[in-house]
Design brief:
Blueprint (H helix, E strand, L loop, with lengths): L23 H12 L4 E6 L2 E6 L19 H13 L2 H4 L11 E3 H4 L6 H9 L2 E8 L9 H13 L1
Parallel strand pairs: 1-4, 2-3
Antiparallel strand pairs: 2-4
């Protein structure tokens, strides 16, 4: 299958904003975004405990483990910091050297090409923070209420 968070146009390695040749789900998100305006979004994943802000990719197109800031860097840091500070387990999360009390620049952690948050920012000006809500990639259903409790204040902040 296709990793949908590696399937969007990328400013550095795939700079044509077209849905041609992409997974149907990616094409659907691209079509939906073309018809709807947004300015702020959160994309939630599992597998780590961190608020990740753009850019996830870099001009080298490979992992350099160094930050790739964008013009709205301070705004993204503030958004990620607000989310992490309102999530007690995340706010103390420093299990990776690139993390600063629960936040990181995506490319500083590990670079990816074709991520949705970079695509939304580059082509639509949207501010999206990717939030990894659990260090467990596929947590059991009985843990979901705890994740809800940990993230509720962050989602409202």
């Amino acid at each position: 299958g296709v990793d949908l968070n590696r399937d969007f146009p990328d400013q550095f390695v795939d700079p044509v904003n077209t849905s041609a040749g992409r997974a149907p789900e990616t094409a659907a998100i691209m079509a939906w975004r073309a018809q709807h305006t947004s300015t702020l979004a959160t994309n939630m994943h599992g597998g780590a405990l961190v608020a990740n802000y753009p850019f996830d990719s870099n001009p080298a197109g490979t992992d350099t483990f160094s930050p790739t800031p964008q013009p709205d860097h301070d705004t993204f840091v503030r958004l990620a910091r607000t989310y992490a500070d309102n999530n007690p387990p995340m706010s103390i999360s420093n299990s990776h050297p690139a993390w600063d009390d629960g936040i990181t620049n995506g490319a500083d952690w590990y670079a990816i090409n074709g991520g949705m948050q970079d695509w939304k920012y580059v082509w639509h000006g949207d501010h999206e923070v990717l939030v990894e809500v659990s260090s467990i990639k596929w947590p059991p259903a009985n843990q979901l209420p705890d994740f809800w409790a940990d993230n509720l204040e962050s989602m409202l902040a």
